[in-house]
Structures are given as C-alpha cells and as structure tokens.
Amino acid sequence: MSRILIAEDEPLMRERLLAQLQVAWPDGEVVAVAKDGLQALEQWRQLRPQVAFLDIRMPGKSGLEVAAEIGDQAHVVFVTAYDEYAIPAFEQGAVDYLVKPVEPERLAVAVQRIQKRIGAAPPDWSAVVAGLLNRGQPASKLKWIRASLGNQTRVIDVADVLFFQSDAKYTRIVLRDSEALVRTPLKELVEGLDPESFWQVHRGTIVNVAAIDRAVREGPEKLVLHLKGCAEKLGVSRQYFHLFRQG
Fold first, then answer.
1. Would the pLDDT of 85 be above 80?
2. What is the CA radius of gyration of the chain?
3. Residue 160 and residue 81: Cα distance in Å, rounded?
4. Distance, CA of 193 to CA of 41 (rounded, Å)
C-alpha cells in the first residue's frame, strides 16, 4: 500500500483533495495531512510517505521548498493555481501537477501516472526546485480561470470579469452577461491577479478596476461602488477607503 502525504493550507481544498483521493486511489493510504510547509516537512521526516501532494503556496515553507528538502526520497505532485510554476517542474521530472480547483478526472490521471512510477526511484528535486525558487514569483499574472458548469469546463478570461465575490465555500465570478462558481479561495485569486487591474475592496470582494463607474459615499462609514453595465453594487470595507481618495 502506497503511503501519501497531503500538504494544503486551505481547509476546503485540503478536504476536497482528501475525499477525491479516497475515490481515485482506494488502495493508497493517506498517512499525513499538513496545514503548512513546516508541518509537511516534519510529517514527511517522521513517516516517510512515498508520495507527496504539495500545494506550492503555503505558510512556513512553500511546496517548492518542501520538495527541495525531500529531494529524491518521494514522488511529488504539485497542487497549484499557477501554471507558470507547475509546467516547468512537470517538464523537468515531476510526476504530475494539478491546477486548482482540482477536478476528479484530472486527479485520476495523476494517480495513474504515480502508480506506474511508484516502483522506480523518484527524481532528485534539489536542482530543479532551486531553479524554480530563483525565478521568484511567476513572471505573468493569472490570465484565465477554469470554472466547471455541470459536465462542462468554461475558460474565463479574467479581463472579462467584473468582480469576484467569495463566501465560505465558493467564489462567485461575475461577468457582464453571466456568472460562474469556483472553489478557488479569494486569497489565492488576490495573489494571482494583477494588482494594477484588480483591487480587493472587501474581505470577500475583488473588483476589476476597469469595471468601476464611480464610488459613492452614502455616509461617513459607507462607500458603495457602481459598476459599468451592471446593476449590482459593491460595498467597500473601511480599510479599503483609501483606494478611492482623490490624490
């Protein structure tokens, strides 16, 4: 039985990946579930799982840093919202990578690839990951988002998005003529979006600056955004009022 480590700091994503793995790999044994990179490394040293699913962006240590320390002692699958990081790693020897939100069909393909390699020695990650770390942040920002609609996957150009609005489970993507839901947490979108084009204006809201028509004061503690071609209005949290002050 293959022993598996899951490292993901977002609770919803962590639980979803764990549940999907139980279906895709019923003979695999998840021996460790880590909430950050430091915990992932500690659990890996104690339990020595053969496979590690590592979120690239985690507190403490990133998935890249954890992979660098694991070296050639385990097969690694990166879980990421950023293809810019994942594709070079995959091309240079990773078992696979998964882009959030992880789809069951895509995970099943990754599991099949791992199972074929499980008897072979894992690649040595040290040099590969060092090169990725030296690149720093991805050169380009998030350009598109994949959203599942029933049995279809829609590819959304972020430039067409009016705003993102998140609750406990989902992030709502609002366009001029439609909307979609994804499981990607708002904090990951904030990190991936161009800060010049998208502003966070509330704990649960990111708005496309180009979609803003005007900001209206409705009292000393209330600021409301009116959007172009959209009847919906967005409240601005006080901590973000400074974005709309005249220079």
1. no
2. 20
3. 19
4. 29
Rounded Cα–Cα distance for residues 213 and 224 (Å):
11
DSSP for the chain, written as a single string: --EEEEE-SSHHHHHHHHHHHHHH-TT-EEEEEESSHHHHHHHHHHH--SEEEEESS-SSS-HHHHHHHHTTSSEEEEEES-HHHHHHHHHTT-SEEEESSPPHHHHHHHHHHHHHHTTSPPPP-HHHHHHHHHT-S-SS---EEEEEETTEEEEEEGGGEEEEEE-SS-EEEEESS-EEEE---HHHHHHHS-TTTEEEEETTEEEEGGGEEEEEE-STT-EEEEETTEEEEEEE-GGGGGGGS--
CA distance 56 to 138: 12
Alpha-carbon distance of 65 to 10, in angstroms, equals 18
Mean pLDDT check: name the lowest of 43-52, 146-155, 172-181, 187-196: 146-155
* C-alpha torsion sign, points 112, 50, 100, 24: positive
State pLDDT tens for residues 128-142.
Answer: 666 666 655 444 577
Residue 145, strand partner residues: 156
Side-chain-side CA neighbours of residue 129 (13 Å)? 22
CA dist., res. 77 & res. 103, Å (int): 14
Side-chain-facing half-sphere of 81: CA atoms under 13 Å: 25
Q: What does the alpha-carbon distance between residue 165 and residue 235 come to, in Å, rounded to a whole number?
A: 11
pTM over 0.85: no
Cβ atoms of 54 and 66 within 8 Å: the answer is yes
